[in-house]
Amino acid sequence: MNMATYIPPNEQDPNDLAWMREALNMAEEALANDEVPVGCVFVKDGKAIARARNRTNEWRNATLHAELEAIDHLLTTNPAPLDTITLYVTVEPCVMCASALRQIGIGRVVYGCGNDRFGGCGSVINVNSSSRLDTHPAYIAEGGYYREEAIILLRRFYLSQNPNAPKPKAKASRVLKTDIAPVPTSSNNTPQSSRPPSTTPSKGDGSLPRNIPMTSNPSAAPVESTAISIPTPEVRTSDDNATFEIGSLNSEKTVTDSTSNLPIGSTLASTPVPGPLA
């Protein structure tokens, strides 16, 4: 049974959606750099204290998932436990990253789409809440925030030609599709953390993240069905996952945010305006 917890769109907090847009910005940057498009933002007291994207191809290092890349910079100024910090990440953390987050005592994780192959927050195993770990208490892990956008980003990546594959496969003839399977059924039994969640962002100077397609409808009713298989963020060495036939997002929103390219670990990150773009 899939034990991942998904929050229905009509119950998602606009503040969480605002920060997830920031994570999607980082995922877009990863895609532009031929990386598996996963991005994340760590938030404390309404401010982004670290943000990162996958860099596994760039450094030929399978451990450089977005979460671990950010943690390397984060811990220098924020020693564990990070119980007042929330992580926003576009894809459910894999087992490796979910374990790392448990070891640093993260307070809460909010993610976009699930990871049916290597998910560590309930899709495969529940590292975030397992009683077999004796490092730090269980942390809340909730998915479904801009899930469709996160899935489409992954599909766009796997549609592209893979220069790192031993035998690249031709993909030019593939038909683009945008259909998304419903949210996986869930036992919804992720235990609540014994610690309070991070402070969500408040309205700031009016700046907004850039170039994020807004196709999710926060007022839509929740859906139930079987799970969709989502590739994990890892080094791109073959075309084994290239069977996805996908479509591009149709975005008419482009908002400039001059602070969105701050270095990883910057404490001068912008505070997004809560809620979806009008």
Automatic annotation (TrEMBL):
Domain of life: Eukaryota
This protein's UniProt keywords: Hydrolase, Metal-binding, tRNA processing, Zinc
Domain CMP/dCMP-type deaminase: 14-132
PROSITE patterns linked to this entry: CYT_DCMP_DEAMINASES_1, CYT_DCMP_DEAMINASES_2
Cofactors: Zn(2+)
InterPro entries for this protein: APOBEC/CMP_deaminase_Zn-bd, CMP_dCMP_dom, Cytidine_deaminase-like
The protein's enzyme class: hydrolase
E.C. number: 3.5.4.33
Listed Gene3D superfamilies: Cytidine Deaminase, domain 2 (3.40.140.10)
Single GO BP term: tRNA wobble adenosine to inosine editing
GO terms under cellular component: cytoplasm; nucleus; tRNA-specific adenosine-34 deaminase complex
Composition-biased stretches (Low complexity): 182-202
Region (Disordered) location: 181-278
MF terms in GO: tRNA-specific adenosine-34 deaminase activity; zinc ion binding
Polar residues: compositionally biased ranges: 248-270
Family: Belongs to the cytidine and deoxycytidylate deaminase family. ADAT2 subfamily.
Protein name: tRNA(adenine(34)) deaminase
Species name: Kwoniella dejecticola CBS 10117
